[in-house]
Amino acid sequence: MNDRAEPGGWTPGGDKGQGRALGDPDDVAAVRRANADLYEAIERGDLDLMERVWAQPDEAADIICVHPGWMPLRGRADVLRSWALIMANTTYIQFVLTEDNIGVRGDVAVLSCEENILTGAEDSNAFVATGRIAATNAFVRTESGWRLWLHHSSPIISDDEDEDVEEP
Fold first, then answer.
1. Which domains does the chain have, with CATH numbers?
2. How many Å is the maximal CA-CA distance in the chain?
3. What local confidence, expressed as pLDDT, does residue 159 receive?
4. Given the DSSP bridges, would you call strands 108-120 and 127-142 parallel, antiparallel or unpaired?
5. CA-CA distance, 84 to 143, in Å (whole number)?
6. pLDDT tens digits for 11-68?
7. Where is the SnoaL-like domain (predicted)?
8. How far is residue 80's CA from residue 65's CA, in Å, rounded to a whole number?
């Protein structure tokens, strides 16, 4: 990661879609790794890893998860149940994360990013769908490291009309 700080304390990111970061470089790297663990758990369908990603009830005031189009889920049990349901019904998913921005203040960190998603069906080698999601993940520092306590994701709706307009 680039250690040059911009005005306001932001540090430009490196390659692979990394955006700006504010905070101690070691904390920023640890938060980025915790975020990667979240998406690795989803891609692998690994509920054990997903359980380790999320904070315990005594580590965060209120664990919250908002999946695209869902009502907010509160509490560790409901959040993990939702991920188990998603994993059970997803045969293939891959995330390419871009535009990440990280801010770390004390024992709290917020990471926003774009999730560029590829999904496929089990009975087909063919590509099925893509999508772009704006995500915000908030982490809390615990004795075990950085743990997720809030995940909020919403679809990015592109305006095709803007893309089709020709410049004069």
1. 18-159 (3.10.450.50)
2. 59
3. 64
4. antiparallel
5. 26
6. 444 444 567 889 999 999 999 999 999 999 999 999 999 999 999 999 988 899 999 9
7. 31-157
8. 9
Map the chain to HEC letters. Answer: CCCCCCHHHEECCCCCCEEEEECCHHHHHHHHHHHHHHHHHHHHCCHHHHHHHECCCCCCCCCEEECCCCCCEECHHHHHHHHHHHHHCCCEEEEEEEEEEEEEECCEEEEEEEEEEEEECCCCCCEEEEEEEEEEEEEEEECCEEEEEEEEEEECCCCHHHHHCCCC
Cβ(91)–Cβ(122) under 8 Å?
yes
User: Higher-confidence residue: 22 or 84?
Assistant: 84
pLDDT of residue 6 exceeding 60: no
Give long-range contacts, CB 8 A cutoff, 24+ apart: 53-62: 53/147, 53/148, 54/79, 54/80, 54/147, 54/148, 54/149, 55/140, 55/142, 55/147, 55/148, 55/149, 56/142, 56/147, 59/140, 59/142, 59/147, 59/149, 60/140, 60/147, 60/149, 61/149, 62/149
Q: How far apart are CA 52 and CA 74, in angstroms?
A: 17
- Give per-residue pLDDT as tens, 121-153: 666 666 667 889 999 999 999 999 999 999 999
